[in-house]
């Protein structure tokens, strides 16, 4: 079995490469994360490259122990960092090696899902390796949609770009990356979304 952590670095490097070659105004484009521009998503995912465990603990205490508050606060603040610093953080070995409480699986989910928050919103190709996207699909469906509160009752998911499928019922067919975004509770630019549980 492939080490899930090994797909994290190429995902973040791919996102950095995409953004480094994009016009500066791309950073102000909306992402799939509600109320977040591309720059907020990057500021969020690169927290491990900037915050020591002690600093993170202090931020969490200031947020009253609420990770959502912490995320919004740090994203709003650090989104204004110079773009070169943001790109360096995406390429940071610290970020590439970081693991949340969920271990390598959680690190890969974080990298793939948030990279898709950017690429899907910008209508750009997925930057994560294809095998990584399928691994995340497997993780999200193994949890039966519970990780992001989507209701998969009577739903069959079919990846149009691979042979991957899951479930039975009404077919939802899209490329693998779009399926990950849907399973993550996102609404696609065309308005598609999975029902909430």
Automatic annotation (TrEMBL):
It comes from the Bacteria. Residues 13-92 form the Mycothiol-dependent maleylpyruvate isomerase metal-binding domain. This is Mycothiol-dependent maleylpyruvate isomerase metal-binding domain-containing protein. It holds the Pfam family MDMPI_N. NCBIfam families: maleylpyruvate isomerase family mycothiol-dependent enzyme (TIGR03083). GO terms for molecular function: metal ion binding.
